[in-house]
Design goal:
This protein is mostly helical. It is built from 6 helices and no strands.
């Protein structure tokens, strides 16, 4: 190691002299030194200017960085506030969704309860309509049977015997008047029955409109389909009952016509053989014809009313 230090000292001692423009201090003149100093001062001034310029640029960059850092902090604060606002909005939105789901649940529950009540009302109305229809059919059947019983009790033979036995013509006219009043009373009863049928039709139409307003419900559609499928069967049963009720009336009408013709023939033979007054014979014959026409008209009216009831039921089914 000591030899190395000696080598360094020798190298330092062997350093070449400083040159100015290629000349040593001993070789350069005073003027050249002054010129060299002037040049060095110019270079120094230039370096100072550059240093000042770079210091200004550094200060600008430093101030710009400070402004940028401040803006960055502001942006970070705004971003933090925005994230907090977003979190608050999300929490509020979740609360709103929860409230909306709860309201929707209540609405669905109310809708279900309303649909259940409407289904119960429709079922009750359907049962009432069926009961009323059955009651109307039973009333019609009872009325027809009562008319048949009354006609059987007051047979045509009793009427003709009374015509032959009663003396005064005024009494016969009074009886004819009473029979006409009874006939018109029966017609009024038939009109009342037609009104009841029309009322039933209106009630049925109202229930039908009410049921159509709930056609979106599958349960109601199934009930309507069952009701619609049961109506033809009921119409068939009602028609069959009406046919069974009308058939005795048709037979009674045919028998009545035959009986009247026989009695007219017997009266004609009796009056021809007994040499009675021709005017009295004509009057009695006319009375018999009037009574037979009234009875026949009454039976035809009953048949017509029965057919009207059947056609009304069929029309209701078609409109339904």
């Amino acid at each position: 190691q000591p030899p190395k230090k000696d080598a360094k000292k020798k190298k330092a001692e062997a350093k070449p002299p400083t040159l100015i423009n290629g000349l040593t201090k001993e070789e350069i003149s005073r003027e050249q030194i002054e010129e060299h100093v002037v040049r060095l001062r110019e270079v120094l001034d230039k370096e100072r200017e550059e240093r000042n310029y770079f210091q200004l640029e550094r200060d600008k960059i430093k101030s710009f960085r400070e402004v940028t850092d401040r803006k960055l902090e502001e942006v970070k604060a705004e971003l933090k506030n925005l994230e907090k606002a977003i979190e608050d909005d999300e929490a509020h939105h979740l609360v709103g969704i929860k409230v909306f789901k709860q309201k929707m649940k209540h609405l669905l529950c109310e809708h279900h309860n309303t649909a259940t009540e409407l289904e119960a009302d429709i079922a009750t109305s359907k049962d009432l309509l069926e009961d009323e229809q059955s009651q109307l059919e039973a009333d019609l059947y009872k009325e027809m049977m009562s008319i048949l019983v009354e006609m059987q009790e007051s047979s045509c033979e009793d009427v003709f015997k009374e015509l032959l036995l009663v003396g005064p013509v005024d009494k016969k006219d009074l009886e004819l008047k009473n029979m006409k009043e009874e006939f018109y009373a029966l017609l009024n009863e038939n009109k009342e029955f037609a009104k009841r049928v029309a009322k039933t039709e209106n009630e049925y139409s109202r229930l039908e409109r009410r049921s159509k307003s709930f056609s979106q419900s599958e349960v109601l559609q199934i009930e309507m389909a069952e009701l619609q499928s049961s109506i033809p069967k009921k119409i068939y049963i009602a028609k069959k009952q009406a046919d069974l009720s009308l058939r005795p009336l048709e037979d009674e009408l045919a028998a009545l016509n035959d009986h009247v013709e026989k009695i007219q023939a017997q009266l004609h033979a009796l009056f021809s053989a007994s040499n009675l007054d021709q005017t009295a014979v004509t009057e009695i014959t006319h009375k018999v014809e009037v009574i037979s026409e009234i009875l026949a008209l009454h039976l035809i009216t009953l048949l017509h009313d029965g057919l009207i009831c059947i056609s009304v039921l069929q029309t209701d089914h078609v409109s339904f």
